[in-house]
Amino acid sequence: MDDVTPIVAAPLDGWEGRSPDATLRAVIERGGVVTCPSLAFALSDDEHALFDASLADDRRKSIYVRPGRAGISGTTATGARRDTVAAVIDRYARSAHALIDGLFPAYDAPAHATGTSFRPRAIGDVSSGRALSWRKDDTRLHIDAFPSNPTHGERILRVFTNVHPTTMPRSWRVGEPFAAMAARFLPRTRALPPGGAWLMHRLNITKRPRSAYDHLMLQLHDLAKGDPDYQRTCPQREVDFLPGTTWICFSDQVMHAAMSGQFLFEQTYRLPLARIADVDASPLRTLERLTGRVLA
Ligand code: SIN
Ligand code: FE
Fold it and tell me: 53-67 pLDDT, tens per residue?
């Protein structure tokens, strides 16, 4: 089905020592998801203490570590338990780096890692009482685009592993190809007001000035999430990632929604476009083709 994101299974069963794989690289660069149903992230008995939703800070869905920043954020854990959480997240980061560096050495991924997270809460768990705005509701199909973090067209590559201790899948929906989604919503987007990007940067709303590309990507994220008819009727399919499964995709390109599940590890990379083989398939080039403008 050309009209829905392809999901391609790969029989990988170890993180280390993979050979470069141009076929899988083409799958993800063209907007597919590569899933490895036999690539588990093993946890020791001590580490099973991680299977506790209350480890996550009330206001957050993720416990995360950012390279170059000391310590972990988003957790209530203290003392030895905090050290255990930090050590496992670090071990997951190193496993993901080995995997991506083996499969796709041209990405130089470890040098472009931007964060690693553990998500101990069940999706939809609102016991913390925080009201989730529709913009942050990841059960709605979306591409990843972050208001404070302009990319200027750099790619967002993510590795996910479901580590649920029994049988609960991480259930996603994936949607239509990026170009189809973009063609549908672009007519409803608006240009940045003159000086707007500069002002948001000066006010520290953004980490660097938003490019025309970032401005469009955020609007596509919001327009898709904010359209209940689209969410219901657009081309889509459900996919269950079972415990012991690892999957890889460019989440700035794949329309995705996380519907249910608990206990996930995730590694993010920000890749310069120069690292990508099929640049023509990237969101930046796709939007430039559709708008007839240079966007970053
Ligand atoms: C997302 O990136 O939208 C959420 C992924 C997940 O938590 O499964
Ligand atoms: Fe997302």
Answer: 999 997 788 999 999
Tell me how far the alpha carbon of residue 170 lies from the centroid of ligand 1, in angstroms: 9
- Whether 2 is covered by a domain: the verdict is no
Which atom in ligand 1 lies closest to the alpha carbon of residue 123?
7
Number of structural domains, the chain? 1
One DSSP character per residue, 167-181 reads: S--EEEEE-S-HHHH
* Protein residue with least CA distance to atom 8, ligand 1: 258
Pocket test for ligand 1, best of 256, 259, 260, 267 (most atoms within 8 A of CB): 256
The pTM score is 0.96
E strands, the chain, in order: 7-9, 33-36, 63-65, 113-119, 155-162, 170-174, 237-241, 246-250, 256-260, 264-271
Residue 243: give the domain boundaries: 7-289
